[in-house]
């Protein structure tokens, strides 16, 4: 009796085709996952800017403002001096472009709802009337 070793060409092609299909499905899911990670990172970065402005207002007992335009975020003190400036990662944009104002007690003048957009993905950032920033 002859003993056969290895795989036939048909078996090998079948396994390669199966691996190709699994790889294509995995690549599509990985791209969606990476897009979600990018928008989450941009939203967290934006919320950190707002939190820094609030903390500075509390610490110094002076009004602070955060100006938003596109992916640029600027923090100003009560005298209008630029305290910090930065850009959001991954070319993210924040809408609506506005100026968020904090009192010397760290309270915003109203509740704000922002949308951070990175490519096709979006994430909301909410500034509550208490000054707390949440990412629902």
TrEMBL record:
Alphabetized SUPFAM superfamilies for the sequence: Pili subunits
GO biological process: protein secretion by the type II secretion system
Keyword terms of this UniProt record: Cell inner membrane, Cell membrane, Cell outer membrane, Membrane, Methylation, Periplasm, Transmembrane, Transmembrane helix
Domain of life: Bacteria
Domain General secretion pathway GspH: 43-131
UniProt topology in membrane: Single-pass membrane protein
Entry keyword Ribonucleoprotein: no
GO cellular component term, pick one: cell outer membrane
Compartments it resides in: Cell inner membrane; Cell outer membrane; Periplasm
Chief location category: membrane
Keyword RNA-binding set for record: no
InterPro entries per UniProt: N_methyl_site, Pilin-like, T2SS_GspH
Family annotation (NCBIfam families): IV_pilin_GFxxxE (TIGR02532)
Protein known as: General secretion pathway protein H
């Amino acid at each position: 009796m002859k003993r056969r070793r290895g795989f036939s060409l048909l078996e090998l092609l079948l396994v390669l085709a199966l691996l190709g299909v699994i790889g294509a499905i995995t690549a599509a899911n990985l791209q969606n996952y990476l897009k979600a990670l990018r928008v989450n990172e941009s939203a967290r970065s934006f919320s950190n800017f707002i939190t820094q402005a609030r903390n500075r207002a509390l610490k110094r007992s002076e009004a602070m403002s955060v100006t938003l335009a596109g992916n640029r975020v600027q923090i100003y003190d009560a005298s209008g001096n630029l305290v910090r400036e930065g850009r959001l990662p991954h070319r993210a944009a924040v809408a609506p472009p506005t100026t968020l104002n904090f009192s010397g007690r760290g309270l915003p003048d109203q509740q704000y709802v922002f949308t951070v957009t990175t490519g096709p993905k979006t994430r909301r950032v909410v500034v509550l009337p208490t000054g707390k920033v949440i990412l629902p």
